[in-house]
Amino acid sequence: MAASLNQGNGDLSEVHEINVTPFIDVILVLLIIFMVAAPLATVDIAVDLPASNAQPQPRPNKPVYLTVKPDLSLSVGNETVGRGALPGVLDASTSGQKDTRIFLRADKLVPYGEVMQVMNLLRAAGYLKVALVGMEQASPL
């Protein structure tokens, strides 16, 4: 409860106003936190993903995305890598943990054979847990 001090009067009177300054401070701090954290949680490579109606699975805290772009080049996160350097870059991204799930994203225009070649590269590098990423499709009513 807030009180106002009067110089001439001996009794204290209540102030019926809400102090919103601490509330605004908290909201601004949360806004800054979300503005900084949101870009870190996304991958900025534009890929036209095919749609899927499968149930989405929970995403880990630090997912490792391997992207096959329409020109058949590969990217781990936002970094473009050659096919020969892929095992080393994946080892660096996963801290050498071969049981880490790799999220494989491929553009619609990438032939199925190319996706299988990338999956064979992952298997040869020792990464056997591969999740295919697609756009969520609205279920029919």
From TrEMBL:
Q: Which domain of life is it from?
A: Bacteria
Q: Does the keyword Transmembrane helix apply?
A: yes
Molecular function in Gene Ontology: transmembrane transporter activity
- How the protein sits in the membrane? Single-pass type II membrane protein
Query: What parts of the sequence cross the membrane?
Result: 20-43
Q: Which Pfam families match?
A: ExbD
- GO terms for CC? plasma membrane
GO biological process terms on file: protein transport
Claim: Protein transport is one of the keywords in the record? yes
Primary place of residence? membrane
Q: Which keywords does this chain's UniProt record carry?
A: Cell inner membrane, Cell membrane, Membrane, Protein transport, Transmembrane, Transmembrane helix, Transport
Spell out the subcellular localization from the entry. Answer: Cell inner membrane; Cell membrane
Task: List the PANTHER family.
Answer: BIOPOLYMER TRANSPORT PROTEIN EXBD, EXBD MEMBRANE COMPONENT OF PMF-DRIVEN MACROMOLECULE IMPORT SYSTEM
Q: Which family does it belong to?
A: Belongs to the ExbD/TolR family.
What is the protein's quaternary organization? Answer: The accessory proteins ExbB and ExbD seem to form a complex with TonB.
What is the annotated role of this protein in its UniProt record? Involved in the TonB-dependent energy-dependent transport of various receptor-bound substrates.
Please report the name of this protein according to its UniProt entry.
Answer: Biopolymer transport protein ExbD
Source organism phylogeny: Bacteria, Pseudomonadati, Pseudomonadota, Alphaproteobacteria, Hyphomicrobiales
